[in-house]
Amino acid sequence: MSQTTLATIPRLIAQVLAIYDVEATSVFTSAGIDISDDSQSRIPMVKMATLWKLAVQETKNNELGLVAASLFQPAYLKSIGMAWLASANLEDGLKRFIASSQLINTAIQIELTEQNGENGEEILIQYQKRLKLADQLKVHHCSIELGIGFFLKMFRLAAGKNIPATGVYFTFSIDKSKQAYEDYFQCPVYGNQAVNGISFSKALLTETLPTHDAELVEMNEMVINKHLASMENGDTSAKVIKIINELLPLGCPTEETLAYKLHMSKRTLQRKLSQEKQSFLTLLTSVRLILAKQQLAINSISITEITYQLGYSSPSTFARAFKKHIGVSPVEFRAQLVDNINN
Fold first, then answer.
1. Cα separation of 186 and 265, whole Å?
2. Cβ atoms within 10 A of the Cβ of 239, count?
């Protein structure tokens, strides 16, 4: 899989450029990115590195990643951001983000390390690049600044108060801009370190969030899992998933129908899916379960309605299929969601 990032991130850079009265379209064009194309769901990291380089040149601000971090909002992370805000505490939301982080950026792996700080136990959030050394050079330092700075911004938005960091670490030199970094992070900042990371008091990260909502977490996780499945699948699987989603409200689609929609024979469809280690039945079941969980989280939708929206012949058929894969009946699953919200 090529190294890519979510298309909302370059749109954040466009917002940064506007602050400096820099015309974004020409900068994006030079980087090979069409800012007006809403259909672009992901952008290659190579192009992102070029975009950051051009943006720094135009604004003459070498710490542009910090400006982007200050403008960051949860909506830039889509469902992941919403699930984070609704989590029980900052640590829970952080772990949820890490589990889904490849949706945001496939080039970076995030690890958590517990350590002893001056004022008690701390959690260090550190970036470990998955890339080979030659590819690591393509990651612009402003991208790292944004990646570290956004944690501070996200924690403060979710908690509704100042969440101080205890330390910030960069692998590159910060000698010329140390004051700018410390002004932003309001804590000691160190350059030329072994990792890129930021640390916080564990006690602060485990406080219950005022925005905690178990139902919102459940609903947004359904969307996240759906997108992750699409990323992990090949081209044919992703197209099959899309068509199944479109056809389910009209009844359960058949393999023949999918093949016709994709302008290929049933045998060709089976062969292409097999090459991607998938099958029509597996994808159909996966989509049905994702949608079933999402709709069961909404109490106003009856189980009978859900049954026919997912193309099952009867509520009992739906119940048997759901229990086979989830372990509980649709009624029991909905009751568990209600219990989670009330507890």
1. 62
2. 17
The strand order across the sheet containing 108-117 reads: 108-117, 120-129, 196-201, 165-169, 189-190
Backbone angles phi and psi of 25, in degrees to 5 = -55, -45
CA distance 313 to 315: 7
CB 99 within 8 A of CB 110: no
Residue owning tokens 């550190």: 126
pLDDT for the residue 201: 93
Region of 32 (left: φ > 0; alpha: ψ -120 to 50; beta: rest) is left
The confidence score (pLDDT) of residue 228 equals: 59
CA 219 to chain centroid:
14
Amino acid at site 211: T
Closest Cα partner for 200 from 150, 152, 248?
152
Mean pLDDT (the chain) is: 83
